[in-house]
């Protein structure tokens, strides 16, 4: 080889060596650069890991004694991985009738052609109980023994059928307290939502917080699923036994009186705890989808907090207590009842269209005289009257911790829809619309020494192994303690003197009936009424308040005939559940201790 050839080879070799060194240098430089490290991390995140959301288990609901009202159970989604399906007809025969599946529908799904761009997986059914899945698993295993991997298309095979577990909300008591609890919809399993009642009001608390985490795509890199803290569990003020008793008695009373529907609320006036709240209709919470449509536009889910009505004479408790508190009248004030009262361009009458002559305020309440209460309201004056009513919370939400509370606007002087005649009609509970929870809360101030407590159903929160008890909240003090005591005694005497059907032997009860005419075509008449009763006891130290509303009873229009006996029947059992001894037993105990 001549020198020129050797020289060219030397130059080429040198250039290649230099290029190799440059490449090595560049690789080292890139690998050590921050930009490379950022790109490497980005690639790892994009292609080695996936972002997954893990949703916590929804918290449970318990009654005040720890009895489960709402929890969760394992159910399964059943589907098909289409590329592995070998015998669609076997799958269709096996699933025919399961969760109301039809043979032809299953066969159609099982016969889909696997297409990576379109058809990969087909859902057959969801919310299948674990017991059914256990049977399917046994069948599938048996077929695999006789026909491994489903290679023989003439033999049965469930190859390709899979099932995935997830949680479903369950309600062990079915319809019990359904108006209070509400329900949790699984229409979107990962983004379910609570509707109505506690499930709606405390939805965020029960649901907990989902956890977003990076999960390796390589299964060999997976160390374990993240532990997601469950949502908070809630202990309610509701007593399961009292709730069941009240629902049964309410249903019987509505049926016996041929009424449209009814509501009963039992609360502790000392702290606002609701022990029971029964409303109609109720649904089986485990099958909410079958009946939920009836609550969308026509019927309130919980009439106790969502339906307003004219309460009638139970409202007189508020009017009389306001007038006594302001000093406009006292127990000995005399009114000569002529049977009619003209005011503001209108005339009001007593329930029997008769006059009752001279009456003190005790007689006015005992005989439930509309004319007397109309006069009392004018003595109090419109400004003071509506000031007291607003202090009682009329026209405002109680903010009870249940989803769906509604109110009706309360017209007061100065509003375009207020007229002077409303002062006297409002005084005896006509021309004013309230919800049962509003009335129960307002009247509870009289039972509780003038102090009005916020109604609530949450007793405690259980989270991270700790229990956090709620504290009672005072909504206001609309009347003085001495007024409440005087009003309390007046209502005790009223029931006793008229030998009311609400009286419970052995117990001192305070209370008031209500009968409100329902206007038909703008005209009031006794054909359709709202029958109510509110009472509490023991009167000297009230531990319960019961509010009853029966809508449109046909057997009798009167609250004293329809609502008062239901109050009595409930209280007879309530004092046993609450372990409240009769007055005579308490007096004997005090005497012995003395």
Give the overall shape.
elongated
The CATH architecture of the largest domain can be given as 3-Layer(aba) Sandwich
Overall number of strands: 22
In the CATH hierarchy, the third-tier topology of the largest domain is known as Beta-lactamase
Portion of residues in beta strands equals 15-25%
Radius of gyration: 36 Å
Describe the structure.
This protein is of the alpha+beta class and 594 residues long. It folds into two domains: 70-170, 2-Layer Sandwich (Ribosomal Protein L30, Chain: A), CATH 3.30.1390; 240-589, Beta-lactamase. It contains 19 helices and 22 strands. Helix 11 (316-326) packs across helix 17 (481-497). The longest helix has 30 residues, at 3-32. The N and C termini lie far apart (135 Å). Residues 217-222 have low confidence and may be disordered.
Task: For the structure shown, list the relevant keywords.
594 residues, alpha+beta, Ribosomal Protein L30, Chain: A, Beta-lactamase, 2 domains, 7-stranded mixed sheet
Q: Briefly, what is this?
A:
The chain has 594 residues and is α+β, with helices and mostly antiparallel strands.
SSE arrangement:
Elements lengths: L2 H30 L1 H15 E6 L6 E2 L5 E14 L6 H8 L7 H8 L10 E9 H17 L14 E10 L7 H4 L1 E3 L7 E3 L1 H5 L1 H5 L3 E6 L16 E4 L3 H17 L4 E7 L6 E6 L23 H4 L9 H11 L7 E4 L2 E4 L2 E4 L7 E4 H6 L3 H11 L1 H10 L29 H7 L8 H12 L4 E2 L4 E6 L2 E4 L4 E3 L4 H17 L12 E8 L11 E9 L6 E8 L7 H19 L5 H11 L1
Parallel strand pairs: 2-9
Antiparallel strand pairs: 1-8, 2-3, 3-4, 3-5, 6-7, 9-17, 10-11, 10-22, 12-15, 13-14, 16-19, 17-18, 20-21, 21-22
